[in-house]
Amino acid sequence: MAHPAVLTDLVAQYEALEALRAQEGVPEAQQRLDDVVRNLCVATGAQDIEAALVLARQQLRDERARSGTLVAG
After folding, report:
1. Residue 10 near residue 36 (C-beta atoms within 8 A)
2. pLDDT, position 73
3. How far apart are CA 39 and CA 43, in angstroms?
4. What Cα–Cα distance (Å) separates residue 26 from each residue in 10, 23, 33, 45, 50?
5. Are 14 and 32 in contact (CB under 8 A)?
6. pLDDT beyond 50 at 63
7. Which residues are CB-contacts of 1 (< 8 A; sequence separation ≥ 6)?
8. Is residue 49 within 8 Å of residue 57, measured between CB atoms?
9. Considering only CA atoms, which of 32, 40, 30 is closest in space to residue 9?
10. Contacting residues for 6 by C-beta, under 8 A, at least 6 apart
């Protein structure tokens, strides 16, 4: 799995580019979106973007929970 900071950045990029593509249909946004999708799939080991997003968000939730536990304990 990728570092949480990398996953956070990739998920944020995906969400922003998906919104931009949906609004404006900018070809450059589609190419960048394709790159981010590929990177998210590689980083999570997923076969598709839906699974990659689920895995990335789960890893980020788990990391926040571990960090919170370490700080509180």
Report:
1. yes
2. 36
3. 6
4. 19, 8, 11, 28, 22
5. no
6. yes
7. 7, 43, 44, 45, 59
8. no
9. 40
10. 43
Name the DSSP class of 45: T
Residue type, 12: A
* Residue 39 structure tokens: 């990177």
Q: Residue for token digits 């700080």?
A: 71
At 71 the pLDDT is 43
Tokens for 32? 């960048």
pLDDT at 68 over 90: no
- What integer pLDDT is reported at residue 69 of this predicted model? 54
- C-alpha 32/C-alpha 37 separation (Å) is 9
Give the whole-angstrom CA distance, residue 37 versus residue 25: 17
User: Which amino acid does the sequence have at 42?
Assistant: V
